């Protein structure tokens, strides 16, 4: 599955908007977004669905009928999609609520993954995130790298265009990488 999947809907856009908002205004923080850590699993799933990060409905891959949500304790999130069509050969087939979402790449709890997304948006270093939340450094690195890949692929497919008809853009040379000479920066 491609990192930018049309199945993901507006969730990717939401994550990138968070990142851009934080880049534009460094005083902005998203405490409300981190509130997911204090919610029940059901409330957390509703929270993520309200941001188009998880699907609201899924169809069975065998009978094409809508699946229903069931509480299943043996699944990672405690809730899964289940085919309840009596005429389906694969009736009671389960499917993760993470299907076709960014969360499907990881085995962490949804709240932990979302926390890492917010930390990445705020440019919080991996060591600081590990100290705050006790999540493994390698896991944090994997999520951060997947987010970087997602952002890179998104902007490769839909690049930001500067200027336009009748508009002149002036780009200062200081925006480009400049190699330091003799170990000194510009003065």
Describe the structure.
The protein has 187 residues and is mainly alpha-helical. It folds into two domains: 1-53 and 101-156, no CATH class; 56-96, no CATH class. Helix content is 36%, strand content 6%. Strands 1-2-3 form a three-stranded antiparallel sheet, with no helix packed on it. Strand 1 (68-71) and strand 2 form a beta hairpin. Helix 4 (110-121) packs across helix 6 (137-157). It is extended, with a radius of gyration of 21 Å. Residues 1-10 have low confidence and may be disordered.
Order of helices and strands: HHHEEEHHH
Report the radius of gyration as a whole number of Å. 21 Å
Could you list the spans in which at least 5 consecutive residues all have pLDDT below 50? 1-10
N/C terminus separation:
48 Å
Structural class: mainly alpha
Largest sheet: 3 strands, antiparallel
Shape: extended
Number of helices: 6
- Main sheet: strand order: 1-2-3
* Fraction of helical residues: 25-40%
Q: State mean pLDDT (0 to 100 scale).
A: 78
Strands, count = 3
Query: Any idea how many domains?
Result: 2
**In percent, how much strand structure appears in the residues?**
5-15%
Protein name: ISXO2-like transposase domain-containing protein
Keywords: Signal
Signal peptide: 1-24
Give the arrangement of secondary structure elements.
Elements: H1 11-24, H2 31-34, H3 41-49, E1 68-71, E2 79-82, E3 94-96, H4 110-121, H5 126-133, H6 137-157
Antiparallel strand pairs: 1-2, 2-3
Helix pairs in contact: 1-4, 4-6
């Amino acid at each position: 599955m491609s990192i930018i999947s049309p199945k993901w809907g507006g969730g990717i856009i939401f994550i990138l908007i968070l990142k851009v908002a934080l880049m534009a205004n460094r005083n902005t923080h998203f405490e409300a977004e981190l509130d997911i850590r204090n919610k029940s699993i059901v409330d957390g799933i509703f929270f993520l669905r309200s941001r188009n990060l998880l699907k609201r409905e899924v169809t069975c891959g065998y009978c094409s009928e809508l699946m229903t949500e069931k509480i299943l304790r043996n699944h990672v999130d405690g809730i899964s999609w289940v085919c309840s069509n009596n005429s389906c050969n694969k009736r009671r087939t389960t499917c993760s609520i993470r299907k076709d979402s960014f969360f499907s790449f990881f085995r962490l709890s949804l709240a932990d993954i979302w926390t890492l997304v917010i930390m990445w948006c705020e440019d919080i270093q991996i060591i600081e995130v590990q100290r705050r939340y006790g999540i493994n450094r390698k896991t944090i690195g994997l999520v951060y790298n997947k987010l970087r890949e997602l952002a890179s692929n998104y902007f490769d497919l839909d690049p930001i265009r500067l200027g336009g008809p009748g508009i002149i853009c002036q780009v200062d040379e200081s925006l480009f990488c400049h190699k330091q000479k003799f170990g000194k920066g510009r003065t």
